[in-house]
Amino acid sequence: DYTNGGQVTYKWKNTDMVLSPNKVLGSQFTVKATKNLNILLLTKFVARQYLDNTQTQSRSLDQYIVNDIAINYQPTIKGIKNLNLGLLVNNISNHIYSSNGYSYSGIVNFARKDFSFVYPQAGINFMAKIELLF
């Protein structure tokens, strides 16, 4: 209670755990394009996550689906035991979503105020790798 000082207690029962979605699903679809080239489509679904124990929708993260593509190429080169080239394209649909956040409440001027903050995730982004074994 920022107006009067002290604390006001609220009790909730049988609520979802904070930032713990009740569904997380993932899939991987692989295409072996050639002997040395694999292309993978990775999909992740995360259900609604609550930022506090009230299970209030205004203090939650929306569910989201994100798709990534991974490309792995292993060319055969004389004198090199193993060469693996990879490209990972994350969030290929450039989806705007948040995967984490926090919330707090207080009484200000005799009225309850709720504050929620979220961490937006990156849009489409890339990562490349080179593995080389001799």
Key traits:
single chain, 134 residues, mainly beta, five-stranded antiparallel beta sheet, two-stranded antiparallel ribbon, 9 strands, elongated
Largest sheet: 5 strands, antiparallel
The amount of beta strand, in percent, is: over 45%
Strand order of the largest sheet: 1-2-5-6-9
* Tally of helical runs: 0
| Low-pLDDT sequence parts | none
* Helical residues, percent: under 10%
Q: What is the rounded Rg?
A: 23 Å
Average residue-wise pLDDT: 92
Would you count the extended β strands for me? 9
Structural class: mainly beta
How far apart lie the N and C ends? 66 Å
Give the helices and strands as they follow along the chain. Answer: EEEEEEEEE
| Shape type | elongated
Q: How is this structure best described in words?
A:
The chain is mainly beta and 134 residues long. It is 0% helix and 54% strand. It contains no helices and 9 strands. The protein has strands at 24-32, 37-46, 49-50, 60-61, 64-73, 82-90, 98-108, 111-120, 125-133. The strands form 3 sheets. It has a 5-stranded antiparallel sheet with strand order 1-2-5-6-9, with no helix packed on it. It has a two-stranded antiparallel sheet with strand order 3-4. It starts with 23 loop residues before the first strand and ends with a strand. 4% of the residues are buried.
Short description:
The chain is mostly beta strands and 134 residues long. It has no helices and nine strands. The protein is 0% helix and 54% strand.
